[in-house]
Structure to design on (125 residues):
């Protein structure tokens, strides 16, 4: 099962995203800030870091940069409501996907599905 680490400081949004991703078959561990995500990245294995960009203590960009040092194979997707922050994220973490708020849950799930498409195709044996 694909494991997602969700870092989102807004409690309602965090719960909403967690439920949607779990209903779509993903295992989700959710935290409320980047500083809570780092120890998990060090001790567990995740396929995707799904992070808000604007958070207290440590923003999502710094979290993604530090996460890539710890777990270089982990994919990164940002969610944000700030257009200027989207540009900064694209420059500082170019391999990351960025989904701008507001978005429909279906769009989020489709983007996550696309990231893992090749790994979810059943073998023909």
């Amino acid at each position: 099962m694909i494991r997602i680490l969700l870092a989102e400081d807004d409690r309602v949004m965090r719960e909403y995203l967690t439920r949607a991703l779990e209903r779509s078959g993903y295992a989700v561990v959710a935290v409320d800030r980047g500083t809570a995500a780092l120890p998990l990245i060090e001790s567990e294995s995740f396929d995707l870091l799904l992070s808000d960009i604007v958070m207290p203590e440590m923003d999502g960009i710094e979290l993604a940069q530090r996460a890539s040092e710890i777990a270089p194979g982990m994919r990164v997707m940002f969610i944000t409501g700030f257009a200027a922050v989207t540009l900064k994220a694209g420059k500082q973490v170019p391999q990351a996907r960025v989904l701008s708020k507001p978005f429909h849950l279906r769009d989020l799930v489709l983007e996550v599905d696309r990231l893992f498409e090749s790994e979810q195709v059943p073998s023909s044996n």
Remarks:
- The longest strand covers residues 75-80.
